[in-house]
Amino acid sequence: MDAVRSQSAPAVDGSPGELVRQARKKQSLTLARLGELTGYSAAQVSRYERGVSPLTDVTVLRRFADALGIPSQALGLAAPPEVRHGRMIGPTAAYPRLPRPRVAETARRGDGEDPVRRRKLLANLAVTAAAAVGAPLLPTGKAPGEDAAVGEVLVARVRDAVLGLHADIAVPPTAVLRTDLARAFTDFHACAYGSLSVRLPRLICAAHARAAGEGAEEDGLLAHSYLLATRMLIKLDEQQLGWMAADRARQAAEAADEPLLVAEAARQLAVLARKADWHEQALSIALAAADHPALRGGEPALAAQRGLLIQSAAYTAARAGDAAGMRELTGEAAAVARELGPAAVLRDHGGGFSPTTVQLHLVSAENSVGDPSAALAAAKAVAPGSLPSTERRARYYTDVATAFARWNHRDDCIRALLAAEHHAPEETHARPAVKSLVSGLLVSGRTTTELRGLAARVGVLA
Q1: pTM score, two decimals?
Q2: Do the Cβ atoms of 190 and 390 come closer than 8 Å?
Q3: How far apart (Å, rounded) are the C-alpha atoms in residues 64 and 328?
Q4: Is 375 in contact with 399 (CB distance < 8 Å)?
Q5: Interval 296-330: pLDDT, tens
């Protein structure tokens, strides 16, 4: 890892990171001491100074300005906001309008393939794909395209719940709500979107009604509900509604004063920023949250949440085209996971955190930096059966399909998609990412019975 760090470009003279470094040196402060003053680790301070982690977040910049006595304007900050009657008065910004979902152009590369690795990976795919090949209907008997509409129903019902378009909501006892929340997480992990489309909106409405009651205790129920809703909306590429749900999750988490919930809300906000191509902001959100003192306790769950945030930052670096940064951050996440052991921690936060899930994210990250060969090599190191949920297994096969599509191995891509469908039909049929893959296969070459059947089931016209 030191070799990777040594290749990182130093901060440009006059950049915020360089100004922080100069001020620290002038005051004879060590990296560790400045970290104590600002709430970050010495390693993170170093990353900020060298420009490895973008120093752009207003809150982070103000911490360094206050700790080092740097004038706000020198770091590109506006003057401190005016305070009136105990409230800060400052400029406001419009609610961000995110870009419409895009279908990424598929890059294809056919050189450098390792046939032995490919055969081993295909053998893994063949077992689970066999049940879906050539099937005109799902084993459940659903008509083609029916599951594709489940995602739309889920989004519509969550939207109504978020906007409060329900009246006279009966609030069941707390124990019943807790059970319903556990079942909603079970639905999500099992990719049972039909059931989730009923349970999750009802849970959000009841949690809101409960929170509005007199003497209601902020115990994280509302935050958990919105965090789950945000993950679902991100998966279905509903970014604008996702921002609203994520901000509600953040507010509820802060009200409950639960560090894990606050950190998970930050992670999901970072994911949304990444999907909007705000890579610097996404990195800043994730890494600042990872270095928050609240996650520095000795509990495994706190360390796992920190690992999830670093893992998210790694994927953002990949999306920004920074392969070296992605691998450095992935190495940090993997080190945290190794210390925790092989069992998945925080299954309800980010799908669980373990060495296996870090490796799963590496598959996605290598795809994002445009290296399908490395993505397939990373996939070979993952045993799908060891992943903590059906939802994670579906992601594995979809990521493998993406790598094969980039390498222009159409039959292998279809086989991987059929394997994903076999494990999680509702997930596979509803996800925009799968629809994009199938659409690309339809227009880029010959079609087969299997491809046409899959296209019908995901709601794409062949």
Answers
A1: 0.73
A2: yes
A3: 24
A4: yes
A5: 878 999 999 999 999 999 999 999 999 999 999 99
